[in-house]
Specification:
Layout: E1 2-4, H1 6-19, E2 25-31, E3 34-41, H2 57-69, E4 73-82, H3 90-94, E5 101-108, E6 111-118, E7 129-130, E8 132-134
Parallel strand pairs: 1-3, 1-8, 4-5
Antiparallel strand pairs: 2-3, 2-4, 5-6, 6-7
The structure holds zinc ion.
C-alpha cells in the first residue's frame, strides 16, 4: 500500500496536467509507505515524449541526496499516460526497479482521470497493482 499526502498529490496532478500531451515524470519521497513530497523532474527521453519518459540519473541522484538530507527516502516514481489508461506497460516494467512503487496517472484531454500504483517483482516479469490512497 502507498499513501500520498495531499500536497504531494496536488504537485503530481498539476505536473501531469501541465505536461500534457507529453508524459511527465517525477520522484515520490517520504517514509513508511507515506509520500510527503513529490519532486517533478524533466522528461529526458529524446524520442516522442507522448509515449515514454526517461529520468536523468543525475537528477535522480540529486533528489535521493535531498531526500536523505530531509530524513526521507525515495519511495517511488510517478509518471503520466496522456489520453491513455493508468496501466503499467511492458516498457514501464522493463525500465523499473523492484523496490519502488510506480504511480501512473491517466490524464485525459488535459485533466486528471484516474491513477494506479504498481510494484514490480524482482525479475521485472510482473508488476502487481498495490492499494493507492491519495489526497
Ligand atoms: Zn507508462
Amino acid at each position: 500500500m502507498i499513501r500520498i499526502e495531499k500536497p504531494a498529490w496536488d504537485t503530481m496532478v498539476s505536473h501531469a496536467e501541465k505536461t500534457f500531451p507529453k508524459e511527465c515524470c517525477g520522484v515520490m519521497l517520504g517514509s513508511d509507505g507515506v509520500v510527503k513530497e513529490a519532486v517533478p523532474l524533466p522528461n529526458a527521453y529524446t524520442g516522442p515524449q507522448e509515449d515514454f519518459f526517461v529520468m536523468d540519473p543525475h537528477d535522480l541522484n540529486r533528489v535521493d541526496a535531498q531526500a536523505r538530507h530531509g530524513g526521507m527516502e525515495v519511495l517511488g516514481i510517478f509518471h503520466s499516460h496522456p489520453d491513455c489508461d493508468a496501466y503499467f506497460s511492458r516498457r514501464d516494467l522493463e525500465n523499473s526497479c523492484p523496490w519502488f512503487s510506480y504511480v501512473v496517472l491517466s490524464i485525459k484531454s488535459g485533466r486528471f482521470d484516474h491513477a494506479n500504483s504498481y510494484r514490480p517483482d524482482f525479475d521485472q516479469k510482473e508488476a502487481p497493482k498495490e492499494e493507492l490512497i491519495y489526497g
